[in-house]
């Protein structure tokens, strides 16, 4: 039996990582899909644990080979989900959880309509902006685009 595909989506700082961490703790048959990205690694991040950090040419090569289930440009950086990684784990009967930004989730829903998409909405826009500032991981220049996507 093929594993399920569950997508968690929502604007930046809405709590996707916290929800995913909890789901992984309570469901032993659930695995997290590590996405590719071209954005710089944050101090606390580990390559191939939080993201697979690649150059823009490498990312474009992955797109050209059809390796990505979905991909999107968000705040000038590219993000995408590995088809090979997801399908390999699903073939073993293991459920996959993906964290995908809003536009990528729409793309994923079109290519894999049998997957579930859970959209996490911010409680209040003011609270979402406060969380972003407290987190301190995003450039101030990115906040305007993030707020536009969140609305």
**Beta-strand content:** 15-25%
CATH class: Alpha Beta
- The CATH H-level homologous superfamily: Guanylate Kinase phosphate binding domain
Tally of distinct domains: 1
Spatial order of strands in the largest sheet: 2-7-1-8
What is the CATH architecture annotation? 2-Layer Sandwich
Instruction: Please count the helical segments.
Output: 6
> How is the biggest beta sheet arranged?
4 strands, parallel
Give the structural class.
alpha/beta
Q: What is the secondary structure topology, with strand pairs?
A:
Layout: E1 5-9, H1 16-26, E2 30-32, E3 36-37, E4 52-53, H2 56-64, E5 68-74, E6 77-82, H3 83-91, E7 95-99, H4 102-111, E8 116-119, H5 125-135, H6 140-150
Parallel strand pairs: 1-7, 1-8, 2-7, 3-4
Antiparallel strand pairs: 3-6, 5-6
Overview of the structural elements:
By secondary structure, this protein is an alpha/beta fold. The chain has one domain: Guanylate Kinase phosphate binding domain (2-Layer Sandwich). The protein is 40% helix and 23% strand. It has 6 helices and 8 strands; from the N terminus they run E-H-E-E-E-H-E-E-H-E-H-E-H-H. It has a 4-stranded parallel beta sheet with strand order 2-7-1-8, sandwiched between helices. The protein has a 4-stranded mixed beta sheet with strand order 4-3-6-5. The longest helix is centred in the first third of the chain and has 11 residues, at 16-26. The model has no long low-confidence stretch (mean pLDDT 84).
């Amino acid at each position: 039996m093929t594993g399920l595909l569950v997508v968690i989506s929502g604007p930046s700082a809405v709590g996707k990582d916290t929800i995913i961490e909890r789901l992984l703790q309570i469901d032993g048959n659930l695995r997290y899909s590590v996405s590719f990205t071209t954005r710089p690694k944050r101090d606390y991040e580990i390559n191939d644990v939080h993201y697979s950090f690649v150059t823009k040419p490498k990312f474009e090569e992955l797109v050209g080979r059809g390796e990505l289930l979905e991909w999107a440009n968000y705040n000038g950086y590219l993000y995408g989900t590995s088809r090979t990684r997801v399908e390999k784990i699903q073939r073993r009967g293991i459920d996959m959880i993906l964290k995908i930004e809003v536009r990528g989730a729409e793309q994923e829903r079109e290519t894999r309509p049998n997957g579930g998409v859970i959209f996490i909405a911010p409680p209040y826009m003011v609270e979402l902006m406060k969380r972003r500032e407290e987190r301190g991981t995003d450039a101030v220049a990115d906040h305007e685009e993030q707020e536009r996507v969140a609305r």
